[in-house]
Structure formats: structure tokens, C-alpha cells
Amino acid sequence: MIRTALALSLLLSPAPAFAALAPGATAPDFATQGALAGKAFSFSLKQALKKGPVVLYFYPKSFTTGCTIEAHEFAEATPEFNKLGATVIGMSGDDIDTLKRFSTEECRDKFAVAAASPEVIKAYDVTLPVMASRSNRTSYVIAPNGKIVFAYTAMKPEGHVAGTLDAVKKWKAKK
């Protein structure tokens, strides 16, 4: 009970606006199982980057208030990301059955979500304190060359969509 209360307080406490992997770093490559519109598929960062920039956002847990708000905001912005040639993918430590439901109910069939293994969470240095199988809330924009061009960490969902969209626009303008 005390451990759960501590974990919840960490989830709800404000976090500084910085991310573990800084712009200019190479994004760790990975492949995992994802879900889009309730259907499972194999996701590969390397393959996704061949199509254009990737907005890779980590969130703690599907169907929680902040994660649902963030998913709705990304769903609303997905057409704009798509016009810019960007792929949006949400990442959490949830199992694939949960992700299938979340991709339909909260992502509104607009973008994919994928399973973040403890190894991926560690590689992106987004481990949620006291819950190593969960990530904090961090958003990245990764250019097709595999370099991170934007990184933002904040436990509140506000700012993630606007920041990543602005970063994709800036990246596109420099192309």
C-alpha cells in the first residue's frame, strides 16, 4: 500500500522539462510488437525511419487519465504529423492486449502504440522511478538518420504534442 502510494505520488509530481537522451544523440534501434486500430503488428524503428521522422513518445500506463489525455491530443494531431511525413508511435510497458484496446479506444485508430520492454525503457533512459517496468512521460522526434532532434520530459501531458509537432516542422524546414 505504501509502495503504491509512493509510486502514485511520483507519477503525479511535476518533473523537470528535460529528457534523458539529448538532441544529437543516436536513438537506440529496437523492434517490438505494436497495435494499430486494434490489430497487432511488428514495429521496427529502423523501418519506420525509412519513411520519415518518427515521433516516439513514452507514456506510463494505458487508460490512466494523463495517458488518455495525451493519446487524444496525439490522435487529433496525427493528420498534421502525417502531412509532414512523420510517424507517431506511443510506447508503454503494457501488454499487447491492452495496447490493442488502447489503440482503438483512446488513440482512436489514428496512430500506433507499441510495447516498450524494460530494455527499451532503459536504452531510452525513461525508467519511471520505483517502477522499472514503466516509463516516464518523454517525447522524442527522431530524424530519418536516427538522430534525436527533439526531446521533452514532463509527467503532465501538456506540451508533448505541441513540442513534437513544432520540432517536426522545424526539421522539415531545414531539409
UniProtKB/TrEMBL annotation:
Alphabetized UniProt keyword annotations: Antioxidant, Disulfide bond, Oxidoreductase, Peroxidase, Redox-active center, Signal
Lineage top rank: taxon: Bacteria
Catalytic EC class: oxidoreductase
CDD domains xrefs: PRX_BCP
Catalytic activity, reaction form: a hydroperoxide + [thioredoxin]-dithiol = an alcohol + [thioredoxin]-disulfide + H2O
InterPro entries: AhpC/TSA, Peroxiredoxin_BCP/PrxQ, Thioredoxin-like_sf, Thioredoxin_domain
Signal peptide feature range: 1-19
Any one GO molecular function term: thioredoxin peroxidase activity
Domain Thioredoxin: 21-170
Gene Ontology CC: cytoplasm
UniProt GO BP: cell redox homeostasis; cellular response to oxidative stress
PROSITE patterns the record matches: THIOREDOXIN_2
EC number annotated for this UniProt entry: 1.11.1.24
Biological role stated in the UniProt entry: Thiol-specific peroxidase that catalyzes the reduction of hydrogen peroxide and organic hydroperoxides to water and alcohols, respectively. Plays a role in cell protection against oxidative stress by detoxifying peroxides and as sensor of hydrogen peroxide-mediated signaling events.
Stated family: Belongs to the peroxiredoxin family. BCP/PrxQ subfamily.
Annotated protein name in UniProt: thioredoxin-dependent peroxiredoxin
Organism the protein comes from: Sphingomonas horti
